[in-house]
Each structure stands twice: as structure tokens, then as C-alpha cells.
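Sharing a chain and its predicted structure for anyone who wants a worked example. Both blocks are below, sequence first, C-alpha cells second.
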Amino acid sequence: MSVSIADIHAAAETMKGAVARTPLVRAGALSDRFGADIFLKLETLNHTGSFKDRGALVKLQSLTPEQRKRGVIAISAGNHAQGVAYHAQRLSIPATIVMPEGTPFNKVLRTEALGARVILIGDNINASEPHAKELAARENLTFVHPYDDEKIIAGQGVIGLEMLADAPELDIIIAPIGGGGLISGIATAAKAIKPSIEIIGAEADLYPSMYQALRGLTPTSNGASIAEGIAVKSPGVLTRDIIERLVEDIILVDEAAIEASIQTMLSEAKVLCEGAGAVPLAALRQDPDRFAGKSVGLVVTGANIDPRILASVLLRSMVRNGQMAQLRVTISDKPGALAAVSNIIANSGGNIVEIYHQRLFFDLPVKMADLDVTLETRGVSHVAEILKELGAAGYPARQLIDADRI
């Protein structure tokens, strides 16, 4: 059994009035930067902050009265959990969610706030699945799979209907792949409406499970990915068949590219997204010539990023761009030297964030000291300008890199 365009149209009717019809917006800054006409499908604007609202509702609405009474159980790294919990609460269905132990705290708390019982076990959703199925059998609960289910796939496929209704000129749709439910549904809908459209998947290269499965390669999925929502070791059976038939290519992207794309989405497109939601942009920026001159839809799947991770991503980006730098300045250990260095940096336009006076633990003459100065700047060239001004004033200075921070 597979999923048809009729199933997806039926799913669209099911979710009317219960799930947001999210906007497809043209990203002018990204289009200018990458030379393509780029549209963003903002699934971030769903009630729970991700596309998972869709499939969860369609699946829950398909249950019998007896199944609803007994309750459901799901495995999830966060977004499927919230989608199931939210609609289960709306429909008065008891819900249990089994989540990996490393799931971001904000996703766990939000799932609990939606009335679900949360159990943390395993290091990824595939490791959580055996426990969930054992509990489902013991308590006679209906298992709601996050991706390998016809109803789930049909629900996610409504995204494809909406994208082509809003922008029929799309040449390409890029969507993330974890277990494959999202892209399977989108590909089924989009290819039925516009057979010429190209569907491209994007996977984190730490978890290339679908890419490897389709190519008969040895599985290697492992590691801590910033795109935890698609950190799936075992792709779906239903989804693999659909992807093999309808998806033209899968692009693997590394962690640095995903991190940079989160920052780019926020700073240039003004869209907050989690790691999985940034993966389509990471795929596009990996080979911009491939997409140049084409109309490209990127599925921004969710906005549920851990605030600590987001803060780290933004600060690390500032460091890479030279907007945040740490300098080590050698001074004579006498009154006024610190003030002089501060004045030079200020007059050069730098903003000191933190300063640490090193006197005891460095191989320096007793009458000398090092200042470790963290400062905000306009960028790499501005850092070079400040270093030059310090040197000219008799204060040798260098920019610290990770290996120098001792």
C-alpha cells in the first residue's frame, strides 16, 4: 500500500480549521545572494512550531472510538511529540511520548505542557522505538509512527499541495529527510500536480540513513547533530519506496553548513528555524550553481531550537565573521597602561565586552602583563585595524584562536 494524491486531498480536508495553512514567502535577500528565486514554506508558524501538526492530526482522526479511548503512544525527538500531544489533547485522547534522552529541554517541557506523559529513553528515536512498542503492547495503546505511516505521509503531503497552489512556477522543492515522511508526502503531491518538478532531499551527513539505504551502502549514522529532528538511523520502508520513485537526489550537508544556515536564515531571511529547518538552505548553498536562475521552494520545517543552542550558534557566527574577537595585548604592569589600551580600542571603534588581566601564569617578565580582551567589531578588517593601532602605540597584540587560549 502507498499514498495517493487522493489521500493527500482527503488529508487537506481533515485539517481544515485545525491546522494553519502556512504561508509561502519569497525570500528576497536569499534570492539575491544565491541567484535563484527562493521561496520559504514557513511550517514554523504551525501551532506547535513545526510541520508535524499535519500528519499527527490526520492519523489521530483516523482512529476508531475504542482506539481513542485507550490512547496513543509515539516516539519523537520533539516535533512529532508536540504534534501528537497537541491534537490528542484537543481530541481528548490520552497520549504517551517516548523521547530520546538528549532531546532539548524546551521540547520535553512543551510536550508535557500539552498533557502528554513523557518517557525519556535511548540516544535517538530508533533506540526509543523498542521500548515504545513494548509499552504499546502492554497497555494496548495505538502506536503513532513519526514517518512510516500512510496517514502521516498524507498529512505531510498537504504541504506540497499548498506550495504549488501558491507558487505554481516552482522548479524545485528541497525538503529535509529524517525518516522520509515529509518528503514522501510532498513528492507524491507535487509530482501528481506538476510532473516536471524536481524534488531534492537534504540529510545531515552524520545521519545519511536514506542516502545510504538507497545506494546499498553500509549504515554509518551516529553522532550529535544540531539537526536532531532528522537524526534517524533507520529510514522508513514506505518512505524509502516513495523516495526511490519520486525524489531526484539527496544532498548531504555537514554540521558547519547547518549551523551557518541557521544563522543565515535568521540574519538575512529574518526567520527563526531549528537545525532540521535550515538543512534545505544548507543543501542549496552547497551547490548554488545547480539552482541558479530557478524557482526553488525550501521547506522550513520547524522553529523549535533550544535557546542555548541558538545563542551559541549566533555567537560562534560572530566569531567566525570577526564581529566578536579576542585579543592578547602585552603591556607594562604599571598604572595607566590598561586605560591606554582601552582608549585605543575605543577610538578605533571597538567595543570591549570583557577584559582579563594576566599577571601570574604566563612566561612574561615580572614587570609585564598580558590583557585578554574580548571585543565586538565590524568584522575581520576592523580587527586588523585595531591590532595595527595597538602595535603602533607600543602595545604588541595578536588575535587569539582556539589553540592559543592557554
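Comments welcome. The radius of gyration is 25 Å.
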